[in-house]
Write a structure and sequence with these properties.
- The chain is α/β, with parallel strands linked by helices and about 900 residues long.
- About 50% of the residues lie in helices and about 15% in strands.
- The protein contains 37 helices and 33 strands.
- The strands form 7 sheets. An 8-stranded mixed β-sheet has the order 14-24-23-16-17-18-19-15.
- Helix 16 runs antiparallel to helix 37, helix 32 packs across helix 35 and helix 36 packs across helix 37.
- The longest helix has 25 residues.
- Magnesium ion binds next to helix 33.
Length: about 900
């Protein structure tokens, strides 16, 4: 291990690539995101301060052994010598000292979650030397006190307040507000105070050996990989725990060397909207953390052109080059020292969902990336965010008129959030998790320690900070609406309230936060669902997704199976749902739950009469009354879905669901008896007796679905007549109808043999009566394990299968879908007994296995068998992917999730191009 290479100079990219066999992903894995960016920029001739990176392998070895691996420190010292040669400065030298920063950087960006120390190498001796060299005592002691403070906090674990309080006191005593008003003498005195703080807390002096500083800083950065906030962040974002962080040692460049120096952060495109324009902030005469911390008001990046035109021009050229090189929006950090520009970091920039879509579409249109790449760059979850509610514009205008506009700030992360205000992260998290409240977390500013509260909140509001502050960056990443820098708000953390012009909001009171406009309102403002039609870039992206899915041969599949990607259909019960489904891009209805129509006010009494009928004549009369209602429902569906298939499911639930509750009725009867009321008692008692006779211990496994149709065929006979009359009427009006009749809860072929021919006969009769012809299908749901296992038999009659994965999951696990989540499923997931809630994401190895078997067996009998899914899983991206693998023709989900499923379907097609069905794990 002694000769293993743990440390690479920034110019040693070739050596790194050779070591990891060329893959850039592996380079990132070894050097971290920040490190690999510095190496790559160095190779591209971008001005990067000399430096070197200690690899993530070293970090992992450190985590395993508890100390630096053999040879690592010696290699660090050797690399430092090379940097000394490159810069002409010397570490620890009193005449021309080299100062370095020690920066964390994992493979995936974890903004602010791990540690960094700047100005390493400053000691009493080197500080004096720097003063001589620069003639700028103020700058030197400002830098030195920063080192003592950062080192104290990060490396030695001293609390922030231990440094912040004495600085505040010092400023108060002197009567100054801003740091910039402090003189060289002040900083010198503060440096001494800070050194005394170290001594007081740790019992030893601030290290005067620069090598000791570097060694301890490296050690601290390694340790910060396992700090609480880093671990929390990784768990929230799914970053694996075993990647480790690299440590980047970079020559210090000083942005605080006067007014021809400065520092800033920028995005090559607007991370909020995606617009193609440089977006960011800078400060002259300042060091990096001043920009992010929001202590001084930053300048917009365009103004740099006036302040430092040469550096600005070079900056614009370099960032343009970087964006083209990476073919991705870049988030850069830069520093200018005496007019000379240095790039300190480049990485792909975090962005809102809206910006992700716009940037992907723009970059494809600019020819920078392909349409396929554009589609892959947006996640289904981001599309979900874009369909999230917004404030109703009218309600907002009214709220404003009523004087409820409370404050304005920077619109840092879009979307509308309504919640109760809480003033710290722990409280916000507790109220959200334990009390199930909608929470808005309100803070002066946020720090990495606050992330747990931010994730638990519906919205975030800060009174300080800018568009690149911690709160803004984190909120954008998690899609939480956020406003920062609402500076009119005074937050009183002790009294747990905030105030603007005498208007007080106490903790727990409701506020509404519009992250799109930056407005904060008092009270609760109603929200509306965004209009997909207006989101032009998203529509473009989804059209590309559909084109990808429609490519023949994108799925490798046996003869007769679909070789294009998945289609997306929708579950819709009413014409209005069907119209929304169409506008969201659904190309079929995969499930119309006809019984939902029975619950409508004017129909329910007829339905009840039909159920309670003592003879067939009364039942048929009631059904005759229901028929026109159903027919007109179906006509509406066919009209909305002109030319597309419509799957209508015959009645499924147990009949007691349509009747009054047994307990309630019993209570009423007993009360009447006790009070001696007789009027209406007879009818109630009769109804009660009827309901009691229908009682089942396990109704979900009882008389429902096809079983009900066999016991009481009149209902489904009416439904089939209504479907075919509607289809015939619409055909006459020029609508192209494709009805598919779905029989629920089939368990045996014999059930289908009993019912299906009767229904087909009615279909044919109606077509004869009406004198029209159209194609139709009869098929079944696969919701019972036995149906999946005997799918080859079932497919003898069924012309299509649709997986009802709600019931199939219930029946396969034996978990009640109505009670499991409440009773034990959450615990099961928390305890790792189940990896995910199987009612949300298909359990591939159990339920999924049955599905796969059903498709294979079914198509053995009927090679062109149409297969879909209509359980809730149809809109879950991971389940969509599984349906792609097993050879479904389509997935069907709620209209609102159709865009998500369209993108998920395209992702599946692209990610598994050429992978044969049944080849997955
Ligand atoms: C299913 O079981 O997955 C299904 C779609 O039917 P329902 O939810 O109506 O039982
Ligand atoms: Mg079902």
């Amino acid at each position: 291990m002694a000769d293993k290479k743990w440390v690479y100079l920034f110019e040693e990219i070739k050596e790194v690539e050779a070591y990891v066999n060329g893959s850039w992903d592996a380079v990132r894995g070894l050097l971290g995101g920040k490190g690999s960016g510095l190496f790559d920029m160095t190779r591209a001739g971008v001005p990067v301060p000399p430096g070197f990176t200690v690899t993530t392998e070293a970090c992992n070895a450190f985590q395993a052994m508890g100390n630096f691996p053999t040879g690592m420190w010696e290699q660090e010292l050797e690399a430092l010598k090379k940097v000394e040669a490159q810069t002409g400065k010397k570490f620890g030298d009193s005449s021309n000292p080299l100062l370095v920063s020690c920066r964390s950087g994992a493979k995936f960006s974890m903004p602010g979650m791990m540690d960094t120390v700047l100005n390493i190498g400053l000691t009493d001796r080197t500080a004096a030397g720097m003063v001589k060299l620069t003639g700028d005592e103020r700058f030197v002691y400002d830098s030195y006190r920063r080192l003592v403070e950062m080192f104290g906090e990060v490396v030695l674990g001293i609390p922030d307040e231990a440094f912040e309080e004495p600085l505040k006191e010092y400023k108060a005593k002197k009567g100054v507000k801003a740091d910039t008003e402090l003189t060289a003498e002040d900083w010198k005195a503060i440096t001494e105070t800070f050194k005394a703080v170290v001594k007081k807390y740790k019992g030893f002096d601030f290290p005067q050996d620069p090598f000791e500083q570097l060694r301890l800083a490296t050690d601290a950065v390694f340790k910060s990989w396992n700090g609480k906030r880093a671990v929390d962040y990784r768990h929230a974002t799914g970053i694996p725990d075993d990647l480790g962080t690299a440590v980047n040692i970079v020559t210090m460049i000083f942005g605080n060397m006067g007014w021809d120096s400065g520092t800033g952060v920028a995005f090559t495109r607007d991370p909020s909207t995606g617009e193609k324009k440089m977006y960011g902030d800078y400060l002259l005469n300042a060091q990096g953390e001043d920009v992010v911390a929001g202590i001084r008001n930053t300048e917009k990046i365009v103004n740099l052109e006036k302040d430092l035109p040469v550096a600005y021009k070079e900056f614009m050229e370099i960032t343009d080059r970087l964006e083209k090189h990476y073919r991705e929006m870049q988030d850069v950090e830069f520093t200018i020292e005496h007019g000379k520009l240095w790039m300190l970091q480049t990485r792909s920039g975090k962005r809102t969902a809206k910006a992700a879509v716009t940037i992907a579409v723009d970059m494809a249109n600019e020819g920078l990336i392909s349409k396929e790449e554009a589609v892959l760059r947006v996640t289904p979850e981001q599309v979900d965010t874009l369909l999230h509610p917004q404030f109703d514009p009218n309600a907002k205008v009214q709220a404003e008129k009523a004087g409820k506009l409370y404050a304005k700030g920077v619109n840092a992360s879009p979307g509308a959030a309504v919640g109760q205000a809480y003033f710290d992260a722990d409280m916000a998290e507790r109220m959200a998790k334990e009390h199930k409240q909608d929470v808005i977390m309100v803070r002066p500013f946020t720090k990495p320690d606050d992330v747990h509260g931010m994730i638990a909140s519906k919205g975030i509001l800060t009174s300080e900070g800018g568009a690149t502050s911690h709160a803004a960056v984190v909120a954008r990443q998690f899609g939480v609406p956020c406003i920062v820098g609402a500076s009119a708000i005074r937050i009183d953390l002790e009294r747990r309230l905030m105030e603007v012009d005498g208007k007080v909001v106490k903790e727990g009171e409701w506020i509404s936060v519009d992250g799109t406009t930056g407005e904060v309102f008092l009270g609760q403002i109603p929200t509306t669902t965004p209009n997909l039609e207006e989101q032009i870039d998203l529509l473009t992206l989804l059209t590309w997704a559909d084109e990808i899915c429609a490519t023949p041969g994108i799925r490798k599949a046996p003869q007769g199976w679909p070789t294009r990607g998945l289609q997306v259909w929708a579950n819709a019960d009413y014409p209005r749902d069907a119209r929304r489904a169409r506008s969201y891009g659904a190309v079929g209805i995969g499930l119309c739950r006809t019984e939902h129509m029975f619950f409508e006010q004017e129909r329910l009494p007829i339905v009840q009469r039909m159920i309670l009928a003592e003879d067939s004549k009364v039942r048929i009369e009631a059904l005759d009354e229901l028929l026109p209602y159903q027919r007109s429902d179906f006509e509406g569906l066919f009209e909305a879905m002109n030319g597309y298939p419509v799957i209508i499911r015959l009645i499924d639930p147990p009949l007691h669901e349509f009747l009054p509750s047994e307990e309630k009725l019993l209570e009423e009867v007993i009360t009447m008896r006790v009070k001696g009321e007789t009027k209406g008692l007879d009818e109630k008692e009769k109804l009660l007796a009827n309901i009691q006779a229908m009682h089942e211990s396990n109704p979900m496994m009882g008389l429902r679905g096809v079983r009900l149709s066999i016991v009481m065929p009149e209902i489904v006979e009416m439904q089939v007549r209504a479907i075919f009359e509607a289809a015939a009427n619409m055909t006459k009006k020029g609508i192209v109808v494709k009805p598919e009749v779905m029989i629920p809860l089939t368990g045996t072929l014999t059930e289908l043999k009993w019912i299906q021919p009767r229904l087909v006969k009615i279909a044919k009769t109606v077509m004869g009566e009406k004198g029209v012809n159209f194609t139709y299908k009869f098929g079944t749901m696969i919701e019972i394990p036995r149906a999946a296992v005997t799918a080859s038999e079932i497919a003898e009659l069924a012309e299509f299968f649709s997986f009802g994965t709600n019931d199939l999951t219930q029946m396969t696990f034996g978990y009640s879908r109505d009670d499991a989540e409440r009773n034990f499923l959450v615990t099961y997931v928390e305890q790792g007994i189940l990896p995910k809630n199987p009612f949300q994401t298909i359990d591939r190895s159990g339920v999924g296995r049955l599905m796969k078997m059903a498709v294979e067996e079914g198509r053995k009998t009927r090679p062109d068998l149409e297969v879909g899914i209509c359980g809730e899983h149809g809109g879950d991206p991971e389940s969509v992917e599984f349906c792609h693998f097993i050879g479904n023709n389509y997935v069907s989900c709620s209209p609102f999730r159709v865009p998500i499923a369209r993108l998920a379907a395209a992702h599946s097609a692209l990610k598994h191009k050429g992978v044969g069905i049944a080849e997955d794990k």
